[in-house]
Amino acid sequence: MSLYRTELRRLVKRRFTRWMTVLGLLVLAAVVGGVFLTNEKIDATARAKAEAAAEQQYQEQTRWAEQERAACEAAKSGGTAADPGRFPDDCSVITAPPRESIEVDWFLPSTFDFRENFGFTLLPLAAILALVGFVVGASFVGAEWSTGGMMNLLLWRPKRLTVLLTKLAALLTGLLALAVTTTVLWFGSFWIVATLRGTTEKMTSGAWQSFALTGLRGVVLALVGATVGFAVASLGRHTAMALGGAIGVIVVGQFGVAILLALAGVRFAEVWLLPTYVAAWMEKKVTLQNWQACQATYFGECKPETLDITWQHSSLLLGVSLVLILGAALWTMRRRDIS
Questions:
Q1: What are phi and psi of 295, to 5 degrees?
Q2: pLDDT more than 90, % of the chain
Q3: Helix 114-147 vs helix 239-250: angle between axes, to the nearest 10 degrees?
Q4: Do the Cβ atoms of 39 and 198 come closer than 8 Å?
Q5: Which residue has the higher pLDDT, 286 or 95?
């Protein structure tokens, strides 16, 4: 019997894998449902209501300006003002804003523009898939160590690295199938949302290519998360090792470091935080700003100092981390006693 097919079947049959998959899909479905319910299609009726609301806002501003100007003139003619400093020296400057300054778009209901908004939904998709992959990967190998299944398996197939890598290959195959299927359904679901509750206009081949590449990076991020969870749990020979390490990285390595860097006044403190690189990997570039530094322009404007974190920086960090963690897991599997 093929070891790979056996491990793949074991992965699919595990109740924890099924429940984590269902939970992740339910969260994603809730996101789609929330976007569907909070948006609506802009039709002639909605635009007419928005125009009426904009006109009403303009009329209210006009009446307020007339009342304030009359109160200003009354206060000036009486020689005293009820509230000193309330009115300007020249009451004629109190005027209503021009009609064109009150835009109709301000009063339109929220609508889902596929070209403008869909890209922002790919980051939570990748984050949830990576979380599911990390937890399932850690549990898949961690349970084998804690229950003694790994020792029994090595009696049947004594090649340690072959066994561990075959388990990893089965894990990545299952997650790849889940991630690709979920991503395709994600695209289709939001296309339906945009069709019914927004617009799908201005979609070009370039826009589709950009979304497809971002979705592909999300799938890669999920595979990396699964591999890291698998490797850390193999290092600690227990699922809790990976989960505890993840909690430590989030609580101590992220929140703690962020607070420490903020107190120390470090420039571009976000450059030391993992979420910055995850966002840069998905969005291709993240621009950090340092508001403590001023870069004057020719027009006298003060702009903050900036630093760009690109997907190339993220790929280097993720690649090096993956090689180190997985390499350590393979080395310990080869060197340590199985007991």
A1: -110, 105
A2: 37
A3: 140
A4: yes
A5: 286
Closest CA to 275 of 318, 231, 215, 331: 318
The pTM is what? 0.82
Report the SS3 class of residue 207.
helix
- For residue 132, the SS3 value is helix
Rounded distance, CA 160 to CA 141, Å? Answer: 13
What pLDDT score does 337 carry? Answer: 52
Helix axes 205-236, 114-147, angle to 10 degrees: 20
What tokens does 235 get? 């290092």
- C-alpha triplet 107, 111, 116: angle, nearest 5°: 115
Q: Which two tokens mark 114?
A: 């596929």
Query: Rounded distance, CA 195 to CA 129, Å?
Result: 26
Tell me which residue of 54, 336, 326, 337 sits closest to 169, measured CA to CA: 326
Choose between 171 and 335: higher pLDDT: 171
Given this model, what pLDDT does residue 300 score? 58
Can you tell me which residue has the tokens 């003619």?
A: 77
Residue 6 has which token pair?
A: 């056996």
Phi, psi of 80 (to 5 degrees): -135, 160
Q: What is the pLDDT of residue 94?
A: 81
Nearest to 145 by CA among 226, 231, 18, 239: 239
The top-scoring range by mean pLDDT among 5-9, 21-25, 65-69, 79-83 is 21-25
Contact present, 325 and 138 (Cβ < 8 Å): no
CA distance linking residue 281 with residue 299, whole number of Å: 34
Extents of the domains making up the chain: 3-37+112-335, 44-107
- For residue 308, the cross-strand partners are 287
